[in-house]
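User: Run a structure prediction on this.
Assistant: Running it now.
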Amino acid sequence: MNARSPRSLKQLCIEVADSAIALRDDLCLFCTFSRQLGKATLDAIRHPRKIRRYDVYYYMDNCGSDAMPIIALLGFLIGVILAFQAIVQLRRFGVESYVVNLVGTVIVTELAPLVTAVVLAGRTGSSFAAELGTMKADEEIDAMVTMGFDPGRFLLFPKMLALLLIMPGLTIISDVCGIAGGMVIVCSMLQVSTGEYLTKTFEIIQPIDLAQGLVKSFVFAVIVAGIGCMKGLNAERNAQGVGLSATSAVVTSIFLIVVTDAILTSCFGIAS
């Protein structure tokens, strides 16, 4: 035991040092990426005609239209599950009439933006990382820089703008489908009419609840697009590096989405 303790302590110190170095490198990469994206954003604000609209439309179609069915299905199923579990639990206390309040509020403020962001992190974030990682491995990005083209303007900003435009719409679709899923369960198990369910839902959901969900969707869009592009630009120049960058983009995005959601929920709770 005594012979192993110093070696284990040394190994632990090495792992901590490696983690600290990796964190430092990630912060440096994030600063570099933020500078590139900020420069491209300022240039787009000053010269709107320079925005590559066709690239933005392409990514909006790719990220939005293709993701819409799965987001709608997941939103509906989450509404079904949430309503069913809420009825089972609240029925014990004789307050199952509050299920509509729970389903409407939780879906609009929490679950719809969160599920939408996680789905796009898995689909779009990994796609951005793989696309840019492949371009880096093939030295296409180096060629762009050599010819005087700004990668931030041509590669980063269209992706970011497309997600900022499409994420709120997908969140609203998830809201509607989630409420519809809850309506199916509530109307069938509690003998509530569709009109009564919808009337009560519209009474419960306030504009501030919709605003909270939409604000989260904008923030999540920045996280998904930013992390995906950053991981792709900093991928190693080989096939394995491209795969690792895509995986890292998904894991990092989901982690930051959950952490950010907790922070924003706390801030909205304190403000209200």
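Residues 1-5 have pLDDT under 50 and may be disordered.
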